[in-house]
């Protein structure tokens, strides 16, 4: 299979070629590895490869699997995959042995028929909205190599946008799927809390803020992946049933009541170009018969400080957990500045302060439910600004200062973390383009558990404002060496 043909299909398209016996899983695996060889150098999206494991597994994949042979990358965080190392992009953890068993989610990836090729890049402990770990180096944005692909699933986003794989694992504790999707012109869905298992070591990662899912080129790939990976896991305290949502891609969308929200929590300024793109989609939806109303977030939705208590403490606990596995504490040069700050804050916080933060987030969740009770969906930006230049947001060097880092990070992406707090499903779609050709992500959110409704609306927007040709043109430029 030629690389050009491989890149022309999304995941479902590739799986259908295998199921019709036009290709073998082994041929797909080789095409993906060839594309990684071709383009990963300047992008640094794939940081740990397992070519021989993938080749061996491809020989035994059943053609009946829904995504048989589709190449896939696991993010280097949270999810253990048998035969692969899990280092959280942290130099201190680089010598940990490979996992001996799959986590529940990785087992579902295998049952779906995915060909697991390796690990994608992420900031240390997935702690930033950019992907520039000191140990493994920065990942570049395929649309502009001087810019970040966003974070923390930046390696996954760059790999999918550049055509290395059609689907890649992402995690989202504050926007880490949706922000890179916006920066790289992809579909990034954060499902409702609880649909996808996060175990086995934690039932609720990042204090319940985290959701595991994927970045994709098409809405239908994201929907099918959610259907294949959702459902109860015996170790969860709140298991949910399997979600049937793949068919929502083709479902008719009734007239919806949609809240248009432009002002960000915390009053971060919105780039005029991004605001205009969101208003353009609002006009499209209105002309299609949906009822649009301008709304604002409740004051309590400015949740940066209490949410920070949860996820910074989670990083501190991760370090505490890994001390026993590594057999020693980290040396000064083995953790980045933000990680050291997280450890210090986590050790300094009392149980009472943690409980207060949880109460503040519960208050924000209740206020959000009350404010938007009369709406079926929300329409808003994914980010307030275009993807930052590499090095612009610094969580790594001795120049790091937490207050400045918070201002820069939430100035870039103030619209996403609130939905991690509420648990609502939210999706970023590449529905806009800047004057300079950068993708603009536009976000939709729905009430908790209404993932199928969100997918149906997203699929309608994909049909009305398709983006596949833009991604095809990007991959062509990358092959000619003209990215950025």
What characteristics describe this protein?
alpha/beta; Amidase signature (AS) enzymes; 16 helices; eleven-stranded mixed beta sheet; 484 residues
Question: What characteristic shape results from the CA principal axes?
Answer: globular
Give the class from helix and strand content and strand pairing.
alpha/beta
- N/C terminus separation: 28 Å
Strand line-up of the largest beta sheet: 1-3-2-4-6-5-10-11-9-7-8
Name the beta content range. Answer: 5-15%
How would you sum up this structure, described in words?
The protein has 484 residues and is of the alpha/beta class. It has a single domain (3-300, 357-394, 405-479), classed as Amidase signature (AS) domain (Amidase signature (AS) enzymes). It has 16 helices and 11 strands. The protein has helices at 3-7, 11-19, 25-43, 51-58, 104-111, 154-161, 178-184, 219-229, 272-287, 304-326, 337-348, 351-371, 402-412, 417-422, 451-464, 468-479, and strands at residues 46-49, 71-75, 115-120, 167-172, 187-190, 211-216, 257-261, 291-295, 377-381, 426-433, 439-445. It has an 11-stranded mixed β-sheet with strand order 1-3-2-4-6-5-10-11-9-7-8, sandwiched between helices. Helix 3 runs antiparallel to helix 4, helix 6 runs parallel beside helix 7 and helix 10 packs across helix 12. It is globular. The mean pLDDT is 96.
Task: Describe the protein's topology.
Layout: H1 3-7, H2 11-19, H3 25-43, E1 46-49, H4 51-58, E2 71-75, H5 104-111, E3 115-120, H6 154-161, E4 167-172, H7 178-184, E5 187-190, E6 211-216, H8 219-229, E7 257-261, H9 272-287, E8 291-295, H10 304-326, H11 337-348, H12 351-371, E9 377-381, H13 402-412, H14 417-422, E10 426-433, E11 439-445, H15 451-464, H16 468-479
Helix pairs in contact: 3-4, 6-7, 10-11, 10-12
